[in-house]
Every structure is written in structure tokens, then in C-alpha cells.
């Protein structure tokens, strides 16, 4: 089916992203996978190419567009290239809205130019060893000490954790307040008492630096509070829809890409004297996956357009997230099977897509949590 949601401008932007991937990312990717981290230089290259801060106002060096379809293009192309290590989506679409939507003018002047140039890599730190799905379990505290916040606690599984120069930390500012006692505190590189732990050894997305962060009596300036004091929960709920849509966009793009390479493979690979594609079972496998992808694509594209128009709600974002990522997981497993033993070899794209994609049903809210959100909205 012909996709209807993009204009010539989006197509031109897609070409720019492809050129950037070919020139600045793919030649180095194997090395970054070995290193467990991408280079700082590629972030600056992304900044020069105009791929950072798409939604940031132009006066701060951003793209000045609220059209989410540009972000969708970026997510699709990075997924097709299987290059999740350079987490531009996290920076632009997950951390970005907190800075553009909540920062004061003074904070914007301080943080946004570096955000757009690639000098300032960002992260968001919600998860703790004892609090993932249930953010009410957060134990990191930010005590009001008059002229500063005193931050104590630890975070884990933080994407961009090693490279990040600016981390939006969710911390308790009113200990007895539960979800209504959380605030967003921005911690900058070099703050005394802010330490990074291990670059975690994951089963996939090896070049994405996912790390533990520790805060020991970190004195954070008062002016680094982002948004309302005790207002983090509302801020998180507002922005999580975009985070979940971005993961869904990557999910369906990954499934389509896997299907494409597997369709090619079964036409070329022979068994019992003819191509695998001549076997009815193989044709049914491909037919079923193609149908599921086409149906999912229609729904996710509709969500992308709704979000660009400002109308995507948390429930539909949750539907898109769990459905598209569970589809990605099923398709990755079936495509690997259709590659036989070669599918288990790390040098085959299907193998890396299988391990890189496995996290998709977990981060940004697990499939189970997505179903809770949807179920609660229907049965309240
Ligand atoms: C590679 C990677 C990158 C990440 N990046 C970030 C990041 O940048 N910033 C950040 O803050 N976090 C990040 N995370 C953390 C991620 O968001 C959490 O791992 C995720 O939300 C799940 O939390 P948990 O791991 O504590 O699992 P738990 O909450 O302990 O869940 C364990 C299992 O129980 C299920 N479960 C929990 N509650 C319920 C319920 N009410 N009903 C039914 N089932 C339930 C879950 O679905 C899951 O299957 C990242 C994680 C990984 C692995």
C-alpha cells in the first residue's frame, strides 16, 4: 500500500538521513559495537547536518518544526540501518520535549544551543534498581537546601548514560507526596558527587551506552529545576505518549525491514532442489507477516499524523507501542528461523536485528504496562 503521510520535503529529509547514515555512521558502526559506545564526533556531525533539535525553535539552532513526521523519518531510517547505538530519537523526541516545553528562557539559552549542535548529549533518568514500571517506588531524593538541591540516590539502565552531559533526573522533592512529590532536576556533567557506574553489558544494542548513575550529595543549583516543583508525574505523563509512539514507529519499521531481507533470502536459498520460496509453508509465513505489517503500518501512520496534529492520546500511543513492538518481536523470531543456521550468525543482519530489537517491548513502558493503561481507560 502506498503511504500517504509524507510530502516531498519529508522525502528530501529522508535522503539527507540516508546520506548521513552512509557517511557518518555505518563505516564506524562495527567499531562502536566493539567499544560499547559511539563517538562524540558523530553527535557533532549530526548537529551540523541539522538532525538534532528538530522541534527546537530556530533561535536556539533547532529545526523549528512541530511536524512529528520528520522524527518518524529519522526513527525509520535509523531502524532500517539497524543503528540504534546513536540514540538521536532519545535525545530529540524523549528528552527534547522536556527542555523545549518546560525550560525557562534562561534555561533554554543555557541548554538548547549545545543540544542542537551535538556538544551537549542528553539522557533521562527515571529508572532505579528498585523502581522501573512503578515510578512511585523512586527513592532518589532532592532536598531543598535554600539555595540548592541536595541530590542523593542512584539510577540504572540509563541510555546515553556515559556520554550524557545533561541528565534530567526524576527525584523526590516531597518525600510523603508519592507520585505528586516528584520533580525533574537537571544534573550537568562535572557536578561534584555525580558519578557514572558501569557501561552495562547488554545482549543487543551494544554500541548504545546504557549505564548506572550515582548521586552522592550532589549540590544542584536551584535554577536547574525543570517545570513545576512536585510536577514531574504530570510532565512525564504528558511526554510519554511521544516516547511510546517513537518506539512503535521503530517497531513497525524493523518488522518491515526484516520481512524485506527475509523475502530476498528465501528466494535465493535453495533446499530440496528449489528455492525456499516455492514451499507453501514459507509462502504462508511471508504472507502472514506481510499482512500483519500492512495492518500495523496503517495504524501507526495514523498515530503519527494524529500526533503531528496534536491529537494523539496516551491510550492510542500505548496501543501502538505494545502492538508494533510485539509484532517486531514475532517477525524477528520467524525471520531468523527462515534463515536457518545463518540466522544465528552474528554477521547476518537478521541476527543483530533479533537481539537489538528485543528491548522494544520492555523500555518506554513494558507491554504489560501498556495493556494496564489501555484497560484502565476502558474499565474505569
Ligand atoms: C537497554 C535499556 C535502556 C533503557 N533506557 C532507559 C532510560 O534511558 N531511562 C530510564 O529511566 N529507564 C530506561 N530503561 C529502563 C526501562 O524503562 C525499564 O527497564 C522498564 O520500564 C521496566 O522496568 P523494570 O526493568 O524495573 O521491570 P519491572 O518493573 O520490575 O517489571 C518486571 C516484569 O513485571 C511486569 N510488571 C510490572 N508491573 C506490572 C503490572 N502492574 N502488571 C503486569 N505486569 C507488570 C513487567 O511488565 C515486566 O514483565 C532502559 C532499560 C533498558 C534495558
Give the amount of beta strand, in percent: 15-25%
Low-confidence stretches: none
**Strand-and-helix sequence, N→C?**
HHHHHEEEEEEEEHEEHHHH
Identify the bound ligands.
flavin-adenine dinucleotide
Provide the gyration radius in Å: 21 Å
Per DSSP, the total helix count is 10
Count of extended strands: 10
Basic shape: globular
Mean pLDDT across all residues, rounded? Answer: 97
Write a brief structural summary.
The protein is an alpha+beta fold. It is built from ten helices and ten strands. The longest helix has 37 residues, at 232-268.
List the helices and strands and how they pair.
Layout: H1 8-35, H2 40-48, H3 69-80, H4 88-102, H5 105-117, E1 122-125, E2 141-144, E3 148-159, E4 166-172, E5 182-188, E6 194-199, E7 210-221, E8 225-226, H6 232-268, E9 270-271, E10 274-275, H7 280-308, H8 314-338, H9 349-357, H10 367-379
Parallel strand pairs: 1-4
Antiparallel strand pairs: 2-3, 3-7, 4-5, 5-8, 6-7, 9-10
Helix pairs in contact: 1-3, 3-6, 4-5, 4-6, 6-7, 6-8, 7-8, 8-9, 8-10
This protein binds flavin-adenine dinucleotide.
Flavin-adenine dinucleotide binds at residues 123-127, 132-133, 157-159, 202, 210, 359, 362-363, 365-366, 368-369, 372.
Amino acid at each position: 500500500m502506498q503511504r500517504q503521510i509524507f510530502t516531498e520535503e519529508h522525502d528530501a529529509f529522508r535522503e539527507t538521513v540516508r546520506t548521513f547514515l552512509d557517511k557518518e555512521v555505518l563505516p564506524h558502526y562495527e567499531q562502536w559495537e566493539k567499544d560499547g559506545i559511539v563517538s562524540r564526533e558523530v553527535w557533532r556531525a549530526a548537529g551540523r547536518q541539522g538532525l538534532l533539535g528538530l522541534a527546537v525553535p530556530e533561535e536556539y539552532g533547532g529545526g523549528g518544526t512541530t511536524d512529528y513526521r520528520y522524527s518518524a523519518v529519522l526513527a525509520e531510517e535509523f531502524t532500517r540501518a539497524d543503528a540504534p547505538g546513536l540514540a538521536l530519537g532519545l535525545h530529540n523526541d524523549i528528552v527534547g520535549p522536556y527542555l523545549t516545553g518546560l525550560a525557562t528562557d534562561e534555561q533554554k539559552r543555557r541548554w538548547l544551543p549545545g543540544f542542537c549542535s551535538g556538544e551537549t548529549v542528553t539522557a533521562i533518568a527515571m529508572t532505579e534498581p528498585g523502581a522501573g514500571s512503578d515510578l512511585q517506588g523512586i527513592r532518589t531524593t532532592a532536598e531543598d537546601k535554600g539555595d540548592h538541591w541536595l541530590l542523593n540516590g542512584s539510577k540504572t539502565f540509563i541510555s546515553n548514560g556515559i556520554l550524557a552531559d545533561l541528565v534530567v533526573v526524576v527525584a523526590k522533592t516531597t518525600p510523603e507526596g508519592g507520585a505528586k512529590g516528584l520533580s525533574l532536576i537537571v544534573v550537568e556533567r562535572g557536578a561534584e558527587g555525580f558519578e557514572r557506574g558501569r557501561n552495562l553489558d547488554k545482549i543487543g544494542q551494544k554500541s548504545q551506552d546504557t549505564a548506572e548513575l550515582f548521586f552522592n550529595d550532589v549540590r544542584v543549583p536551584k535554577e536547574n529545576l525543570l517545570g513545576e516543583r512536585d510536577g514531574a508525574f504530570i510532565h512525564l505523563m504528558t511526554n510519554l505518549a511521544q516516547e511510546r509512539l517513537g518506539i512503535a514507529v521503530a517497531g513497525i519499521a524493523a518488522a518491515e525491514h526484516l520481512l524485506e531481507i527475509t523475502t530476498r533470502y528465501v528466494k535465493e536459498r535453495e533446499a530440496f532442489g528449489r528455492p525456499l520460496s516455492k514451499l507453501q509453508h514459507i509462502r504462508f509465513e511471508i504472507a502472514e507477516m506481510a499482512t500483519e505489517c500492512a495492518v500495523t503500518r496503517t495504524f501507526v501512520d495514523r498515530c503519527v499524523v494524529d500526533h503531528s496534529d496534536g491529537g494523539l492520546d496516551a491510550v492510542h500511543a500505548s496501543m501502538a507501542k505494545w502492538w508494533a513492538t510485539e509484532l517486531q518481536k514475532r517477525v524477528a523470531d520467524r525471520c531468523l528461523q527462515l534463515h536457518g543456521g545463518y540466522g544465528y550468525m552474528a554477521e547476518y543482519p537478521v541476527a543483530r536485528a533479533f537481539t537489538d530489537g528485543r528491548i522494544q517491548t520492555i523500555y518506554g513502558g513494558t507491554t504489560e504496562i501498556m495493556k494496564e493503561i489501555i484497560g484502565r481507560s476502558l474499565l474505569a
